[in-house]
Specification:
Shape: globular
Order of helices and strands: EEEEEEEEEEEEEEEEEEEEEE
Helix content: under 10%
């Protein structure tokens, strides 16, 4: 599986997302320059003018509802503003777009790293630094359920990915529990996860903290994407290449390739070999 290296950012990657057709890949980085890639030609361009929303704080993640007329966007705490998850209506005509939020979810302590829509757009699921997963009513903003420390994470949740049929989701944190009957373990801090849309596979990635990268050998830093069977929780294999922690992962919606984004500023596009689809566990 020979990767295609795509260099379009000057600073570490933070987020990767394919469109529903899988023919566009969007990347975000700390250089404040969103980039649109063609997975077919590996060429990049700046996003064209489109629907925008303005916030009083940095935006961290976005997820689109069924129908693409709503988006839930998380914002960080900044200059006295608390972290929020905000629902925005997406106008078909750019001239009709407003900054008004249809719903604002607040009152959470710590950064909200991810927010995604639940089945049928009826709920919103949030996860972040306080190690708690919460399910909210997407119409009223009422908190419906939240995980406790005894049944969930012990450390900050860095990533959340939902399955293609929206029946379940996967979360990630720095791997502390080594019990193979309970957790899929990377062996290092986990920054990103994603679920295959076609197979019972998941990919997780991370590595040693970015602040220690210059003192770490690439092999010891665990800067690789690891694949596991999500039911059996057995490791399938790994893909190396990044020279720093992996911060973002995304399967193409067709399940035939995936992309990774790292602290090194590179997006690596990987097309699976035919043998990958015939793996027997």
């Amino acid at each position: 599986m020979r990767p295609i290296l795509m260099k379009g950012h000057e600073r570490p990657l933070t987020f990767l997302k394919y469109n529903r057709d899988g023919d566009l890949l969007f990347s975000c980085a700390k250089d404040h320059t969103p980039t649109v890639w063609s997975p077919t030609t590996a060429t990049a361009s700046a996003p064209t003018a489109g629907t925008t929303a303005r916030f009083d704080a940095p935006a961290r993640s976005v997820d689109f509802a069924i129908g693409d007329h709503l988006a839930v966007i998380t914002t960080d705490s900044f200059m006295g503003n608390m972290p929020t998850a905000q629902v925005k209506r997406i106008a078909e005509d750019l001239q009709d777009q407003t900054d008004e939020s249809a719903l604002v979810i607040s009152g959470i302590t710590g950064r909200i790293n991810r927010a995604v829509w639940g089945p049928g757009n009826r709920t919103i699921i949030t996860a972040g630094e306080d190690a708690t997963i919460r399910i909210w009513d997407s119409e009223t903003g009422k908190l419906l359920k939240e995980s406790g420390m005894e049944e969930g994470h012990q450390k900050a949740i860095s990533s959340l990915s939902k399955s293609a049929d929206w029946s379940h989701f996967l979360t990630a944190m720095g791997c502390k529990n080594t019990d193979p009957d309970k957790d899929i373990c990377h062996g290092a801090t986990v920054n990103a996860v994603d679920i295959s849309p076609t197979l019972d596979h998941v990919v997780i990635g991370g590595g040693q903290d970015a602040m220690n990268v210059t003192m770490t050998d690439r092999r010891a830093g665990k800067f690789e994407a690891k694949f596991f069977h999500k039911i059996l929780q057995e490791e399938i294999g790994g893909v190396k290449g990044h020279f720093g922690p992996i911060n973002a992962l995304a399967f193409n919606p067709d399940g035939r390739s995936f992309s990774s984004g790292g602290e090194d500023g590179y997006v690596r596009l990987h097309h699976f070999d035919p043998e990958y689809f015939n793996i027997k566990m």
